[in-house]
Amino acid sequence: KLILLDSLLQEMANYEAEKHSWGVTHRLNINSQRSEEHLWPLLDKFSSSLLLCYTNRTLYGVEYEHWFVKDKLSDWKIEFSGTNGNFHVNVDCNPVGGELWAPQEFAMTAEVKERMKKVLGATNYSLALRNCEHVARYIQAGVWVSFQMVNPDSFMRKKFIEGLAEKTKLINTFPDELRPPGESFQTIYEDITDNVHCGGPRDALSEKDEKGYNILLIGPTGAGKSSIINHLYNQRVCRIGHGAKPGTREVHFTQGMYGFPMKNKKGKIEKKMKAVNLIDTIGLCDNMLNPEEVKSFIEESLKINILNIDKVLVVCYGRILQEHIEAIKLFLKLLKFKKYKKRFAFIYSKCDDLTEEERKEGIEKMSELLDDGLEENEDESNQPDAIAVAFPPDVTAPTIAIRQDLENLRKVALTYLDSKRISLDKKFCKVM
After folding, report:
1. pLDDT tens by residue, 90-145
2. Tag placement on the chain: N or C end, fewer CB within 10 Å?
3. Which pLDDT score is estimated for 10?
């Protein structure tokens, strides 16, 4: 009995230690001097081939997957580990105890090495918010995600989700030190005034934001989602990647205000100011995360933050590959596309060098690939919008063509609909 009591008390103490980690600032608290002087030089021990993998462990009485990045050719590894409140992101060459699971090989690039340097020496460990999987996947892919806190059947998630309360919205969000730098908020076109008035980025959305007009953007890496958001604001709000290099590595919320034309009580049209929440997402078909992992990552963030979506903008460009189609269709199914087609818009972007005929062919092909067309007894009015746009990056004086594309973008994104909103699974939303 004494042994059982001692074990119970220890488990309670460990749980309290984990709860304490939720209450402190969401930071890594890096020991910079130790990291730069003693740990950075050890990165030269790694070869050009790395492995992302895990072993099974128990901490605070919780069974979990202990993830780390290991050199393929030696025992050198980098991991977030420790005991009794003393945790560090360290480099060592101690042999791994136990079987290696799910090894994924990737290259030691300059970007990977830089990400290693950004997390080395971190001390502020939390199983729920800042764990070994977060660090290992950040090193590999630049994303801050632990699928152990996404999977509803995960023992770790079941253990912590109720106790996290309002801190639930910190799950899989970057710690302060790793937050990508924002944009300049510089105006794009000086003489354009019909735009969403930006209030800035948001860490998360709250219950009061639920009355806002929620716009979700999805699409392959490099499709131009962030550029679409910037042009809805007419400000450089979101970072833009170059080519296929992603600019967004998390689900990114920004909020603004827009005057929606609505009928007043007398039946006259007048503008009613309403909050607009624009939700940028990590690119689909990311070369480090598979489509199901990206879907789970985005789905988790959406369901924690919002219950309803007013408009989904699906953005593609260039040649739409089969893997793009399959990844997008995962989201179309999740967001009940067949039921809410009118709340979707297909946007064929980056048409800068295309003729009008090529633009038309591009959006028709995109619609054909993603929408199976009218089903029997389907309402013909319940169809998605479809437009092609071109917003050259360094143009500050809008041409007639750019003005037309901006008008078309506002029309498909900001036309207020009185019909039922796209609703997410309420049972999933523990905290709002």
Report:
1. 999 999 988 888 788 999 999 999 999 999 999 999 999 999 999 999 999 888 98
2. N
3. 54
The three state secondary structure string of the chain is CHHHHHHHHHHHHHHHHHHHHHHCCCCCCCCHHHHHHHHHHHHHHCCCEEEEEEEEEEECCEEEEEEEEEECCCCCEEEEEEECCEEEEEEECCCCCCCCEEEEEEECCHHHHHHHHHHCCCCCCECCCECHHHHHHHHHHCCCCCHHHCCCCCHHHHHHHHHHHHHHHHCCCCCHHHCCCCCCCCECCCCCCCCCEEEEEECCCCHHHHHCEEEEEECECCCCHHHHHHHHHCECCCCCCCCCCCCCCCCEEEEEEEEEEEECCCCCEEEEEEEEEEEECCCECCCCCCHHHHHHHHHHHHHHHCCEECEEEEEECCCCCHHHHHHHHHHHHHCCCCCCHHHEEEEECCCCCCCHHHHHHHHHHHHHHHCCCCCCCCCCCCCCEEEECCCCCCCCCCCHHHHHHHHHHHHHHHCCCCCCCEECCHHHCCCC
Tens of pLDDT, residues 318-375: 999 999 999 999 999 999 999 999 999 999 999 999 999 999 999 999 999 999 765 6
pLDDT at 44 over 90: yes
Structure pTM? 0.80
Q: How close are the terminal C-alpha atoms of the chain, in Å?
A: 41
